[in-house]
């Protein structure tokens, strides 16, 4: 700084001011002062306010340092990603604002579930974890996952998903029965037949098929009983709640609260989901051996498709239908 005012041009010993839009040019700060300056600016933010930093490289280490020293009180959004300039918007959470769970994110936009599936993050049965918690469990780079989530709805080639989260609960329950229950009922006989057949024919050379058959038969048994309970007890009760929303509440004779059958259904989802996870693991992501016959190939293809349908099926119930039904009953 000169006698008459600030010197022109960059000075590495200076700490540049943020602009009125709250943008901080990190490249103009002496290296040893970069993180302390950013932390100071972040600490000055009011809840809900943002700081955008400009840098000449990906400041990923800053993310982890900020998370470690300040905790889960911010969101991190890439606005621009190189090659010469990186722009990151850091927003301090409002008081009481919690990080969204995998299930909540998928409920708002099912396209983001494709990112979760890509990295093996369970958004249906394990949908109550946050992205950070799920990534930490699997040793994944959370900044990379969040970056892909931010970009998942920007591709012009990605079809917009059905607005499940906007549907009335009685309509959603009917959709689950007509779409997913119908698919499961149609597919179960093939899974039963071909898993037993392939295990019998190829089990001596590929003993993992014996375990796959056992798990697949359990899945078929569990889903068959599970869907009956939903269609006969749970879904009719959900429709009862919807129909009585603007009327005097009447109780089902057999139920005190919708949460009772929901808790059972969630437990059954976890059992089936766990078995399907084991099948995928044992089969090495449905990798076919060189001596696989047509039945072997059809079984693995069918199990893969069944699991993909199950993810959406369970997601619609665990993350949308069930929590909304519980909330509606309380109101």
From TrEMBL:
Any single GO molecular-function term of the entry would be: metal ion binding
Return the annotated region ranges for Disordered. 1-21
Corresponding gene? ric
- Protein's recorded name: Iron-sulfur cluster repair di-iron protein
* Ranges of biased composition (kind: Basic and acidic residues): 10-21
Q: Which Pfam families match?
A: DUF2249, Hemerythrin, ScdA_N
Xref: InterPro entries: DUF2249, Hemerythrin-like, RIC_family, ScdA-like_N_sf
Species of origin reads Hanamia caeni
Q: Domain named Hemerythrin-like: which ranges?
A: 175-325
């Amino acid at each position: 700084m000169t006698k008459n005012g600030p010197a022109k041009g960059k000075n590495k010993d200076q700490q540049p001011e943020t602009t009125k839009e709250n943008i901080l040019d990190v490249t103009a700060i002496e290296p040893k002062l970069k993180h302390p300056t950013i932390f100071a600016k972040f600490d000055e933010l009011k809840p809900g306010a943002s700081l955008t930093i400009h840098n000449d490289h990906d400041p990923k280490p800053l993310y982890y340092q900020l998370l470690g020293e300040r905790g889960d009180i911010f969101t991190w959004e890439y606005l621009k990603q190189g090659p010469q300039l990186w722009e990151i918007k850091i927003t301090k959470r409002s008081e009481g604002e919690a990080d969204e769970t995998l299930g909540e994110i998928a409920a708002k936009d099912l396209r983001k579930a494709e990112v979760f599936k890509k990295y093996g993050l369970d958004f249906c049965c394990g949908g109550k974890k946050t992205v950070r918690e799920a990534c930490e469990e699997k040793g994944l780079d959370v900044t990379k996952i969040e970056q892909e989530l931010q970009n998942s709805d920007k591709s012009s080639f990605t079809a917009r998903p059905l607005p499940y989260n906007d549907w009335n609960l009685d309509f959603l329950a009917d959709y689950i029965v007509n779409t997913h229950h119908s698919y499961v009922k149609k597919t179960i006989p093939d899974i039963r037949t071909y898993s037993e057949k392939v295990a019998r024919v190829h089990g001596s050379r590929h003993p993992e098929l014996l375990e796959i058959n056992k798990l697949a038969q359990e899945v078929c048994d569990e889903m068959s009983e599970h869907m009956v309970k939903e269609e006969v007890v749970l879904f009719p009760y959900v429709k009862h709640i919807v129909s009585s929303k603007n009327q005097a509440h009447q109780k089902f004779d057999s139920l005190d609260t919708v949460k009772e059958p929901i808790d059972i259904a969630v437990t059954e989802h976890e059992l089936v989901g766990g078995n399907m996870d084991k099948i995928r693991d044992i089969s090495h992501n449905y990798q076919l051996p060189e001596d696989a016959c047509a039945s072997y190939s059809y079984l693995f293809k069918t199990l893969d498709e069944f699991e993909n349908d199950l993810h959406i099926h369970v997601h619609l119930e665990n993350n949308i239908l069930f929590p909304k039904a519980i909330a509606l009953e309380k109101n």
